Model the fold of this input.
Amino acid sequence: MASVSCRGLPASWINGWLAAVGATVLDSRLRLHWTADATPVAVLSADGDDPIDVLATSWPNAKMLQELPLASNWRNGKNVLERKVPLEAFESRARAARRHPQSWTLSSTLTDLHVDKQGEVAHAPFDPAGPGTIKWLHHRLLKVHGHVKESSSCRIGDSLLGRSVRVNDNGLGFDHSRIGSQADFTGRWVDPVIEVLAFFGLALFPVRGRGTDGRLGSSARFSALQRGWRTVESRREGRSEVRFMWPAWCQGLDRFGIDALLDVWQPGRRYAWSRIGVHAAWKIVRYQPRGSGDRTTAFGSEHL
Done:
């Protein structure tokens, strides 16, 4: 197996971790494990081929992304999806996309198992609202993808090896490192390769709900339940909250192996981690708004 250690994909960085997983989703030939360093980084491997070249051959082009079932006006359908998605529009789109190989772009971002009082379906935690008019996750994906030349192994390699130059863009909207200080008015900066890969990492994280319908007067504190997000008690806040938790493992796994490992890994049973090759893990720390007008969403990490 040829392998490459990806310093640009540290496991403690949620975007880096999702991007490493997303690489295995884009190309089934790739396997992923993490170094056992104090700060583990991703190691991608492939049978006899350079993993960077393998990933470059599978890099999505603009046409492929424009035709994802999550697209606003998919296949010139009657129901146009925007940030606010009526129940009927989602159900129609879900039926039409059921056999599509990328149908996960719907099931990992939206769910009709919670409907609010306006009859709109719930969004996943990894589908935060964007700034200004770019509120739809698919729009943000297309925008950030436009910064990367198709099948550019050099550009992809620079990102994986940690030597890329960031671009002025909001990205998918949950990378905390895109945010500057209060004195920084130059915009927000992301690595577009990492952002695109992180989007495909969402394929392993479907979203559901508690089966509540706000139109009937029912409600749920946590309306959208995405895989990997767990309810924990916050000692600092004195209340329960939902946080995403993720592991690093030592054995090379393809996307299906990662899927299986996530099924059996239990964050609270650390004594059993080594049995499945897990040697470190983290949980999300949410960005704290700077004021009542700050609508920024971002996720940092805390070591478990």
About this structure: The mean pLDDT is 90. The longest strand covers residues 239-249. The chain is about 25% helix and 25% strand. The CA atoms of residues 86 and 212 lie 15 Å apart.
